Amino acid sequence: MIAVKRKDLKTTNLLIEKGADINATDEEGDSVLTWAINSGDLNVVKDLIKRGCDIFHKNHHQSTTLMKACKSGFIDIVKELVTLGVLINEEDNYGRTALSIAAKLGFYEIVEFLCSKEATVENIDEEGRTALMWASREGFYKVVEILIKYKSDCNLKDKSGQTSLMLAAKNGHYEVVKILLANDAKHQLRNWYGSTALNYAAREGFYNIVKELVENDADINSSDLEGRTPLMLACKGGFIDIVKLLVSRNAELNLMNKYGFTCFHYAVRHNNLELIKYLIQLDLDIELLKKGEKNIFNVSDNDEIKSFLKVNLQ
């Protein structure tokens, strides 16, 4: 295997001629051919196959030679294996296919090739994710475009209820978000915790994505199962540019979550004086802020904030 890893074809041939086991495996079950694939040398791969290496070999995780080629990103080796009859849609122990592996790593040429050879675009792995979900999560917009071209469903959900749009939005992939929205991704869908793509984008502070979703008529007051709206989440994160954007689109200022917090409570709790000064100029329900256990004067432990609130709210 060392000779193969070093792409030393002469030594490899000599060892084989002296009786070395051409299908020997390491502790992970990876074969000599697998190591040749990892090296990326097509000539070594072809020679080993010609000498009898098993192209259908799987390691202890049921990972195939084709999966290894996809993981390493070697398109020529992928094409060679497929031409020789390696099965495209086999799954490893984690439900991953060659296509999902290539998609997650952004190898768009391999993705295009596998799709053209009728790879199953909506195979679901153990996390409930498709190739499109992985490409969206990682921000590989070229892969996303290819998978959509081959009719991958933008609105499928993984095991936590996340769609491709949510995964792109929460990870800040603006170009992917635009592509998905242009291809009928539904921004109103929620995960199992009630969050929408807009909730995610506001929480993580991705202004351009928030703007794109709002311009596509996403529900600006969508609340998760804890009652948190995009405005509350933006206030919690201190993203004043997003707060101003949401307010300009008539986001509700006085909604309360299940714990009795409004957006203003979050600004105060996180001692964000700039945000507090901005919000206090708006149409806040001052009496609501003074009620119950969540009295706004008891939310912050910062003396400067406390003094500011007493001067401006009492």
Would you mind describing this structure in some detail?
The protein is mainly alpha-helical and 314 residues long. It has 20 helices and no strands. The chain has helices spanning 2-5, 9-17, 32-39, 42-50, 65-72, 75-83, 98-105, 108-116, 131-138, 141-149, 164-170, 174-182, 197-204, 207-215, 230-237, 240-248, 263-269, 273-279, 286-289, 303-313. It starts with a helix and ends with a helix.
Q: Average pLDDT, to the nearest integer? A: 91
Which fold name fills CATH's third level, the topology of the domain at 90-186? Serine Threonine Protein Phosphatase 5, Tetratricopeptide repeat
User: Structural class of the helix and strand makeup?
Assistant: mainly alpha
CATH superfamily of the domain at 90-186: Ankyrin repeat-containing domain
Radius of gyration: 27 Å
Tell me the number of strands: 0
* Cα-to-Cα separation, first versus last residue: 78 Å
- Report the total helices: 20
Q: Under the CATH scheme, which architecture of the domain at 90-186 would be assigned?
A: Alpha Horseshoe
Largest sheet: none
Percentage of residues in helical conformation: 40-55%
**According to CATH, what is the class of the domain at 90-186?**
Mainly Alpha
- How much strand content do the residues show? under 5%
List segments where confidence is low: pLDDT < 50 over at least 5 consecutive residues: 1-11
C-alpha geometry: elongated
